[in-house]
Amino acid sequence: MLTRFCLFLFGAIALSAAPPAKQPNIVFIFSDDHAYQAISAYGDSRKLIQTPNIDRIAKEGMRFDRALVTNSICGPCRAVILTGKYSHLNGFYNNTNSVFNGAQTTFPKLLRAAGYQTALIGKWHLNSDPQGFDYWQILQGQGIYYNPPMKTAQGVIKTTGYVTDITTDASMNWVKARDKSKPFMLMCQQKAPHREWSPNLSDLGWDKGRVYPEPATLFDDYKDRAFSVGDQDMTLEKTISQLDMKLVHPPGITPEQAKVWDTYYNPINEAYRKADLKGRDLVKWRYQRYMHDYLGCVKSVDDNVGRMLKFLEDEGLMENTIIVYSSDQGFYLGEHGWFDKRWIFEESVRTPLLVRWPGVTPPGSVNKSLVANVDLAQTFLDMAGVAAPADMQGRSLRPLLAGQVPADWRKEFYYHYYEYPEPHRVSPHYGVITDRYKLVRYYGIGHDAVDLFDNEKDPLELKSFAGQADYADIQADLEIRLKRLRAELKVPEVDDPDATGQRTHRERQAKAAKNAAKKKTEAK
Ligand code: CA
C-alpha cells in the first residue's frame, strides 16, 4: 500500500515537475494539381518557374522526393488524407459519383477531440459538408477563380477577387480570431492551379511572353506500352477546351474584370485565329498557352505562401507551428502530350511534399523514401501526440522528419485508380511501385493488360518490359509483392459497383438518349 502510495506520489511529482509539452500548431497548405515540376525546390530541368516562398519551406525543413498518392485525382486524394485509408475503405473512389461519408473517423476530428481548434478553408470537393472542424468555408464543387461563392455552416457567402488571395485571407483571419489558449490545425486548401488555370488578373503577362522549354515526350506516340496508354482522352492535341485556352471568358468574371482580361487575351487570341495553326504547331501553341496560364496560377500560390509565412512570423507563430506544403496529386505539364493526372506514371503519382518543423526537421534535408498521402493523417496525429486508430493504413512520417528512416520502412507501395470512362477515358488500373520498378495491371473492359516499367533504364516511362525474358524474375517478384499488398490493404477482388463511376456514366448516357429522342419527337 505504502509502495503504491509512493509510486503515486512519485508519479504526481514527476508529472508536475515536467511542464506539459506545448502541442504544436499545424498549418497545412494544400494546392490542387500542383506539379512538382513547377516548384523550383524540386529542380526540374525545364526551370519552368521560381517559387521562392514554397522553396523557403524546403530550405528550412524537409523535401520529400518520392511522395506518392494512392489514387491520383482530387476528391479521392482528399478523402485519403482525412481518413488515412485507401479509397476502397473510405468509400470515395472517384469524382463522378462518390460522396464522402463524413461520419467516419478523420484526423481533424481526433485533433479536435484532443483540444485542437480546427478549420478548413478553400477547396473541399467531397460532395458532403465538412465535419470535424470548428470553422469551414469551402468552394462549391470545383469552385471558380474569380469572385467565387463559398459555403459555410451558416450558408453561402459572396466574395470579390481572386480565389487564391481570398482563401489565404480567410485562413489568416481565422488564425487571428482563434482562441489563443489552444493549439490549432488549419487546412488552407487552394483551388489553384487546377484547370482552367486562370491567373490573377494582376499577374496577366507576368512572364513577359517567355517561350517555355517543351518536355521531351510532348509528342509521345504511345507505342511499346499497353493499349490503355494511347486510348486516353487527356491530350493537348485532342482534349483541351476553348475555356482552357482562354478563347472564351472564364466563369464568374465581372464586366470590369473582363475588360482587364480582354486587354491581355484579345490580341493573343486574334493572332492565334489568324495563324490558323495545324498539327504539331497547334500542339506547341497550346503547350505555351497552357504553361503561361498554369504557371501564372502557381505564381499566385507561391505569393500567397509568402503572405502566409509573413503573417505567421508577424503573429510570432513560426517557432511552434509546423508548416506543410503539398498538392492533392501531381500533374502533367505536357509530358506524354498530356495535361491532367490519374496515371500511376511518375508525374501524376508523385506529389510535392515539404515540411518545416522547427526543432525536429533538419533544415534543407531531403528524403527519398516511399512516402504517401495515406501517411499524413497518422503524421498529423503523431505531431500532436494523439494516438492514431489501428485501422489507419499509413505510417507516421515523424521519424523520417527527424532524419531517421526506420529499417522496416515500406519498400513497395500500392496504387489503385478507378474513374472511368468519363471524363478522360483512363482505364482503371492498379499496381505496385518500388524505388526502381512499377508493375501495372489495367483492367477496364477491353483493357486487360500488364506493363512493367524500369525507371533506371527508362526514366521517361516510354517502354514496358513486361513479358521479356530478362525481366521474368523481376516481374514474378513484383507480382508477389502486389498480391501481398492487396491482401494487407484489404483490397476487394471485385470492385464496389460504384467504384469506377460507370453506373453514373450509364445513367448519363440513358438520359442523353432520352433527351435526344424527345427532341426528335418535338421536331416532328
Ligand atoms: Ca487535384
Describe, in plain words, how this protein is organized in 3D:
The model is unreliable at 1-20 (pLDDT under 50). The protein has 524 residues and is an alpha/beta fold. The protein folds into three domains: 22-183 and 308-407, 3-Layer(aba) Sandwich (Alkaline Phosphatase, subunit A), CATH 3.40.720; 201-285, no CATH class; 415-523, Arylsulfatase, C-terminal domain, CATH 3.30.1120.10. A hairpin with a 6-residue loop joins strand 15 and strand 16. It is built from 14 helices and 16 strands. 46% of the residues are buried. The longest helix has 36 residues, at 279-314. The structure holds calcium ion. Calcium ion (CA) binds next to loops.
Sum this structure up briefly:
The protein has 524 residues and is an alpha/beta fold. Helices cover 34% and strands 14% of the residues.
Radius of gyration: 24 Å
Task: Quickly count the helices.
Answer: 14
CATH superfamily of the largest domain: Alkaline Phosphatase, subunit A
Residues in helix, %: 25-40%
Might you state the CATH topology name of the largest domain? Answer: Alkaline Phosphatase, subunit A
DSSP E strands, number:
16
Strand order of the largest sheet: 7-6-5-4-8-1-9-10-2-11
Structural class estimated from helices and strands? alpha/beta
Coarse shape = globular
Largest sheet: 10 strands, mixed
CATH class of the largest domain: Alpha Beta
Task: Report the span from N to C terminus.
Answer: 97 Å
